[in-house]
TrEMBL record:
It comes from Blautia obeum. It catalyses: adenylyl-molybdopterin + molybdate = Mo-molybdopterin + AMP + H(+). Its cofactor is Mg(2+). This is Molybdopterin molybdenumtransferase. GO terms for cellular component: cytosol. Catalyzes the insertion of molybdate into adenylated molybdopterin with the concomitant release of AMP. One of its GO terms (biological process) is Mo-molybdopterin cofactor biosynthetic process. GO terms for molecular function: metal ion binding; molybdopterin molybdotransferase activity. Pfam families: MoCF_biosynth. Keywords: Magnesium, Metal-binding, Molybdenum, Molybdenum cofactor biosynthesis, Transferase. It is an enzyme of class 2 (transferase). The keyword Magnesium applies.
Length: 342
């Protein structure tokens, strides 16, 4: 930082805010720290009594906040997002497509632990839409050692801290279990809910079957949809531990890998998530509990976006839903802008 005559400050960077006070009219910042002085700024600076200014002096090994902010952006963003204009060492990351946000949490913590810089983001593993703000980054001081930014690049690693997995178009088979539905004793109110949720994504419904409670028939219907090219199969109902609820066993009989039968989420504790390998294709097979039919938000809302983005879900991730897995069933639902599943 050095002091120079205001008339000589063109092209230099201010090290502090310049405040303008007009009695009974205003008291506000005329120029913020970090502002690059222009020729047309000189009269305004002189009018507030600033005949000398403190400006940033370029030093070897020292970066201006905006230069350092570019580095934070570079280690943060992937190809599916862009940065805002730089302002006072700040850059925001904006989504360029719909998809699921993924965060390399270890890298995020490592960078934020260095001090004098920060990255704040929305929750990962949740859907984002084109134009959504993903994260905000900032350099705290006006200047920062280049060595510190070199360290940030090192701890962040070679991959971006944030990435977006775009949604994929999928063909879906729906299997509605229950003899009461098969025999027409009750109206099928489950499938319309599934179709409504699937309509939020690029899905083609291959068809729907009504196998009743026959375990072997449920298995056969699942495999039939897979033979027809299904990218996902959803079984609705028959997910409790009652002896006549045979969906979990039927899914297991396909040879699918069962990730979990049960989830620490309410509503949705009786979820079954599995993956079936058909040559080089991995096909999710879901067993959905009855709550999906009547509750506004359930475990299905947490996992469906990830499935649509081909983001494979493991058992540990399902277990982690326990914290935040309780839907409060608010009078006005604001999901996903709430704590459910986070």
């Amino acid at each position: 930082m050095k002091e120079i005559r205001t008339e000589d400050a063109v092209g230099h960077v201010l090290c502090h805010d310049i405040t303008q006070i007009i009695k009974d009219e205003k008291k506000d910042v005329l120029f913020k720290k970090g502002h690059i002085v222009r020729e047309e700024d000189i009269p305004a600076l002189l009018s507030v009594g600033k005949e000398h200014l403190y400006v940033w002096e370029k030093q070897e090994g020292i970066l201006h906040e905006n230069e350092a902010a570019e580095i934070l952006y570079r280690i943060s963003a992937d190809i599916h997002m862009h940065g805002s204009d730089i302002k006072e060492g700040k850059i925001e990351l904006i989504a360029d497509c719909d998809g699921v946000l993924k965060i390399r949490r270890d890298a995020l913590i490592a960078v934020n632990s260095l001090g004098e810089m920060m990255i704040a983001s929305r929750h990962g593993d949740f859907p984002v839409k084109k134009g959504d703000k993903i994260a905000g980054t900032r350099i705290i001081p006006l200047v920062i050692e280049k060595s510190k930014m070199d360290k940030a690049e090192k701890v962040a690693g070679t991959k971006p801290i944030f990435s977006i997995l775009p949604y994929r178009s999928k063909k879906v088979g729906i299997i509605t279990t229950g003899s009461e539905v098969q025999k027409g004793l009750i109206k099928d109110t489950f499938t319309p809910v599934l179709k409504e949720k699937l309509d939020e994504f690029s899905c083609q419904i291959l068809g729907q079957t009504l196998p009743g409670d026959e375990r072997s028939q449920i298995t056969s219907d699942i495999l039939s949809f897979i033979d027809q090219g299904a990218d996902m199969v959803i079984c609705s109902g028959g997910m409790s531990v009652d002896p006549d609820d045979r969906t979990p066993g039927a899914i297991k009989d396909t040879g699918a890998e069962i990730v979990t039968y049960g989830a620490p989420v309410l509503p949705g504790a009786m979820l079954l998530l599995s993956y079936y390998q058909n040559n080089d294709k991995i096909i999710p097979i879901l067993g959905l509990p009855g709550c999906v039919m009547y509750a506004r938000r359930t475990v299905f809302d947490l996992i469906l976006p990830r499935i649509m983005a081909d983001d494979r879900i493991c058992a540990d991730e399902i277990a982690s839903y326990g914290e935040g897995g309780l839907c409060l069933n608010c009078d006005v639902c604001t999901f996903p802008n709430c704590g459910f599943g986070k």
